[in-house]
Every structure is written in structure tokens, then in C-alpha cells.
Specification:
The protein is 8% helix and 33% strand. It comes from Phaeodactylum tricornutum (Diatom).
Length: 140
């Protein structure tokens, strides 16, 4: 790929690496608070369903991040396996120069039937063991 800047072509090299990491919690990025106020002068507090916040882990959506050296990079996350217990952490606080700012956005969680199976990458799901297959057979 290349970019054209000032009649010179600059080649952009894209390096893609994959890392498997075990986890117990997922950090969910919630949308930024709105800059504008409503007609009464109050802030509009956005409401997002949990499904839209979980798009970060669909394996397709890119997230912008800084690595440890401070270099900007784009990351893509996909879940290979879910742990027995999962903690969902909402990244509400952002540091600015002087203080921490709290994002007041509301994330709506479903009360029942939260299925995270659709976020698990299908190719990496483990095959059943021989014992599991034998346990599935019906004997007469």
C-alpha cells in the first residue's frame, strides 16, 4: 500500500502479529460523552446496549491503542475461549492534564439470556474429546 504526500509516494508497511492472552476480565470501551448540550442546557447522556460495546471483540472491528513505547497502533480482538467466570469492566475514567473525567454514558445489560458464544471465534473452538463423544451416544 502507499500514500501520496506532496507528490511523493510514501510506502506504509503494515505488520500484523497475533498474541494469545488468557483473561478473566474484558475492558469495554464506552462511547465518548457528547460535546453538545440539549435544548434545556443539560448534557445528553447516551445509552448504549451491551451488544454494541462488545463489538470490540468480534474479530473484525479495529480499535486504536498506544503500545508501551507510545506508538499508535490498531488492534483487533477476538475471543478464542470464554473463562468459567467473566468480569466486564467499563472503561469510564479518562485522564486529562489536570484531573480524571468520568464518562456518564449508560450501558444497558440484558437481564436474561446473555449469550457470549457468538463472540467466540469459531475456528479456534476445541473439538470434543473422545470421552465427551462417548458421553453423547445414546445406548439402548
Amino acid at each position: 500500500e502507499g500514500l501520496k504526500m506532496n507528490d511523493q509516494e510514501v510506502l506504509v508497511e503494515i505488520e500484523e502479529t497475533a498474541t494469545d492472552t488468557h483473561f478473566l476480565q474484558l475492558t469495554l470501551d464506552i462511547p465518548e460523552k457528547p460535546l453538545f448540550r440539549d435544548e434545556d442546557g443539560g448534557l445528553v447522556i447516551p445509552q448504549e446496549p451491551l451488544v454494541s460495546v462488545l463489538k470490540k471483540f468480534d474479530g473484525v472491528t479495529f480499535s486504536d491503542a498506544l503500545n508501551r513505547s507510545g506508538v499508535a497502533q490498531r488492534k483487533r480482538y477476538q475471543l478464542l475461549k470464554l473463562p468459567d467466570y467473566l468480569i466486564l469492566h467499563l472503561a469510564r475514567f479518562k485522564d486529562n492534564r489536570y484531573t480524571k473525567e468520568k464518562n456518564p454514558s449508560i450501558v444497558m445489560f440484558p437481564v436474561k439470556n446473555l449469550d457470549l458464544g457468538e463472540y467466540v471465534h469459531k475456528e479456534k473452538q476445541s473439538l470434543p474429546t473422545e470421552e465427551q463423544i462417548r458421553g453423547m451416544t445414546v445406548r439402548q
